[in-house]
Amino acid sequence: MADPKPLLFKNDEGVSEISIGQRSFECMGATPPQDHPHIFLNMGQKDQIRCPYCSTLYRFDPELKDTQTRPARCCHQE
Description:
The two termini are 21 Å apart. The chain is an all-beta fold and 78 residues long. 19% of the residues are buried. The chain has no helices and eight strands. The strands form two sheets. A four-stranded mixed beta sheet has the order 4-3-1-8, with no helix packed on it.
């Protein structure tokens, strides 16, 4: 059985930081057609990681569910 595809997160509002309930995911920058190459990011045991394309800082928040973000609407569900 194949591993599930990681969740995609976006930063349409251009905020500097997004809290998420995942440690591994893909950043797409913004909603297409303004997206950047979708890049897989893995925090490992750390609580934050910065996207090398758009510089968004993602912070892990264990109180958030998989698709929840702070600010809201930053999870791109296909």
